[in-house]
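Q: Joint fold for the lines below.
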Amino acid sequence: MRPQIVIFGDSITEQSFRSGGWGAALADNYSRKADIVLRGYGGYNTRWALFLLHHLFPLGSAAPPVAATVFFGANDAALSGRTSERQHVPIEEYKENLRKIVHHLKECSPAMLVVLITPPPIDEEGRMAYARSLYGDKAMELPERTNEVTGVYATRCVELAKELGLPSINLWSKMQETEGWQKKFLSDGLHLTPEGNAVVHQEVARVFNEAGLSAPEMPSEVPHHSEIDGKDPQKAFQLQCS
Amino acid sequence: MRPQIVIFGDSITEQSFRSGGWGAALADNYSRKADIVLRGYGGYNTRWALFLLHHLFPLGSAAPPVAATVFFGANDAALSGRTSERQHVPIEEYKENLRKIVHHLKECSPAMLVVLITPPPIDEEGRMAYARSLYGDKAMELPERTNEVTGVYATRCVELAKELGLPSINLWSKMQETEGWQKKFLSDGLHLTPEGNAVVHQEVARVFNEAGLSAPEMPSEVPHHSEIDGKDPQKAFQLQCS
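A: Joint structure:
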């Protein structure tokens, strides 16, 4: 059985196999080593994600994933009283839901590498422009997400990772280190451009490498074609595939 | 268990999760419906692929793939007596090896949709330019693959699909319908540009749709976020996830 790495999250995970996406880039890195399993659910917050845990990560599996990224918060941080209120989850509940997710994953497999990823920053102007492009004059006047509030969610996510001794990626901070992050990394003020996807890919690859899960160092499932003797191919396969 | 669609082939499959790749595009289409499982092995021909069958597609699996693409021939068609001779597989053996692959997959699961894909056409000038870029004056003077010979392999592949009643994609013919296919679809005379990847994606999606495996028509694993009642989320999950 080939190792599985599950990427679990909201739309930013669901869309990660589009052109230039971070999930596809990981799948390319691990193409002959591990499967990148896409479990992204657009619009989901951590409260709704809890309902999926037993379905997606059944306890007692003979071959649980070796690693998982948990990438929620962009919807939890939608503001109460605004147009995306349905998705809002209070900050303390967000943290506790993340804790429950981690707890479940570790119950699946104590050895699983669990990486928490914070939501990206919000470009409020970009969100407004996107709303106007969809709804014209009927677009909301007030933002449904603010960068400041999303930053509080990011802080809680990183805080929890520290409490639990897990690696985390503070995407909210990381992206804002680059000038012009608003348009460079975000396509509609929230979702990622190819450049924004490259930041996630680079960070996830870095964390996996640091945790000893680097693709080049993982054992190869089958021989490289250059190792196959054209006159006696069986030899190479007996070594690795028996 | 979520349905699995395996893409099995050589480097053109292995590289299909790079930016703009056809495998990643399929994974995006099926993101909440099925897993696209990458089993691409650069440099492999059908003779070497046979050694992988029991390893990649064990008989007696409780959840065999629902579909598989089989995409070999670009290496089999490397010419005997030229620089890629190691990879050459005689034309009749190529066809018989493909038959063995199909036979194994159908033994895994008689219901599995097996789609045969021919190698793409060869831009001999592009291959030469690529060799010169790598080896300078030491590059081969004679092509290691020709478009004509690869076309014979493509014909045998389609012929076998007809004999076995399987769908097939004649990529060799399809790509040559477009003027300027040499540079438009091929990056080094053999591997695919993003536009070339788009042709494969479009053809595979068409065949899957015709066979009743279209992503929009497959059942959804979990509710869309718009179906979740913010005040009573459990309801939506009880319907679909129990």
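Q: Anything notable?
A: Chain A has a mean pLDDT of 94. Residues 4-241 of chain A form a domain with the Rossmann fold fold (CATH 3.40.50.1110).
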